[in-house]
Design goal:
alpha/beta, Rossmann fold, 2 domains, six-stranded mixed sheet, 8 helices, about 15% strand, globular
C-alpha cells in the first residue's frame, strides 16, 4: 500500500482564487438530535455540498484531471470522457469549462433531469445509456467510445483510477482527523466507485490503526441510491477491496428516504438519498457502541434530486 510520501500531492497545481481552489475544507457537522438516542456516542457528517460543484465528487474529479495533466495524457486536443451517474460528471463539466477542456459523459438515461440540465449548462456532451443497465451500462459505453478513438479522448476512468481514492487520502481524511482533533473512532462511507471509502480508510488507519472503518451499500441491485453500487452484482472498481472494511452494512432505500426526512426535520439538513443512507449506516454503527466518535460523509444535498424525491 502506498503511504503518504509516495502519493502525488496535486494542490500546488491549482491556480489561486480559481473554482478549483474552492474544493475541500468542508464543514463537519455534529448530528446532535439524530444521535440523542446513542449518547454519549457522538455522530458527525462531512457536508460535501459545500464544494463548488455541490458534491464530494469534486475532490476526485479535480485530482484525476490534475493527474492527467501532470502525466501529459490530458492535453488541449483531448476531450475528457468518462462514465458517471451524475455528480462526478458535473465536476468534470465544471472543471472542464474552467480549464478549457471539452467534456463528453456517458450516463444512464434515468439519471436525474436536474443533473442533465446542469451538465448541459456547463457545455458537456451527454451520451445516454440504457436505464436498466445503471452505471455499468455507462461504463461499457465509455469504454467502447474510448476504444474506437483513443487519440481523441482523455479517459480518466474514475472506477479504476488511483487518483480517485488518493484525493480523499490527501484531503478528506486529513480534514476529518483535524476537525475531530484525532478523536474519531469509526468512519462510515457508502460505496460507489469506492474511492471515498478507500482513500479515507487508508489515511485514517495511518493516523490511528484502531479507527474502525465501515462500508455501506444498497441491500439490493434494485435501489434508488444514486451513485451507489450493490457490489456483489455490479462491475467492481479496480481499487475496491472487500476485505478493507471492518464491517459492511446494507441499507434499504426506504430507510434512507426516511432518514432524509428526519435530517430535514431534526437537523435542518435537506440531503440526498445517498447521504441519508450514509447516516443510516453511521447510526447503525453508533447503536453498537458505548462510547465513541462516528464520522460519515454526506455526499451532497437534495437540490439536484427534488424533481423525483418523495418529500
Amino acid at each position: 500500500m502506498k503511504t503518504a510520501e509516495h502519493i502525488p500531492q496535486m494542490q500546488d497545481r491549482i491556480p489561486a482564487n480559481s473554482v478549483m481552489a474552492a474544493v475541500g475544507n468542508t464543514p463537519l457537522i455534529e448530528l446532535t438530535r439524530i444521535a440523542a438516542e446513542v449518547a454519549p456516542v457522538r455522530l458527525f457528517a462531512k457536508a460535501e455540498w459545500f464544494n463548488p460543484g455541490g458534491s464530494v465528487k469534486d475532490r476526485p474529479a479535480l485530482n484525476m484531471l490534475l493527474d492527467g495533466e501532470r502525466r501529459g495524457v490530458l492535453t488541449r486536443d483531448k476531450t475528457i470522457l468518462d462514465a458517471t451517474s451524475g455528480n462526478t460528471g458535473i465536476a468534470y463539466a465544471m472543471f472542464g469549462a474552467a480549464m478549457g477542456y471539452r467534456v463528453k459523459l456517458c450516463l444512464p438515461s434515468n439519471a436525474g433531469s436536474l443533473h442533465k440540465r446542469i451538465l448541459r449548462a456547463y457545455g458537456a456532451q451527454i451520451v445516454e445509456t440504457a436505464a436498466a443497465e445503471a452505471s455499468d451500462g455507462a461504463i461499457r459505453k465509455a469504454i467502447e467510445l474510448y476504444e474506437q478513438s483513443p487519440d481523441e479522448y482523455f479517459y480518466p476512468d474514475q472506477y479504476n483510477n488511483d487518483a480517485n481514492w488518493q484525493a480523499h487520502y490527501n484531503t478528506t481524511a486529513v480534514e476529518i482527523w483535524e476537525q475531530t482533533g484525532g478523536a474519531i473512532t469509526h468512519f462510515v462511507a457508502g460505496l460507489g466507485t469506492s474511492g471515498t471509502f478507500t482513500g479515507n480508510t487508508r489515511r485514517l488507519r495511518e493516523f490511528n490503526p484502531d479507527v474502525q472503518c465501515v462500508s455501506v451499500q444498497p441491500d439490493t441491485p434494485l435501489h434508488a441510491l444514486e451513485g451507489w453500487k450493490h457490489m456483489p452484482t455490479s462491475i467492481q472498481p479496480g481499487f475496491y477491496d472487500v476485505k478493507m472494511a471492518d464491517q459492511n452494512i446494507e441499507v434499504r432505500t426506504e430507510d434512507a428516504q426516511a432518514m432524509v426526512k428526519r435530517l430535514a426535520a431534526e437537523e435542518g439538513l435537506l440531503v440526498s438519498p445517498s447521504a441519508g443512507a450514509a447516516v443510516v449506516g453511521a447510526l447503525t454503527v453508533a447503536r453498537e457502541l458505548d462510547d465513541g466518535v462516528v464520522v460519515t460523509i454526506m455526499a451532497d444535498n437534495a437540490s439536484k434530486y427534488l424533481d423525483h424525491m418523495n418529500i
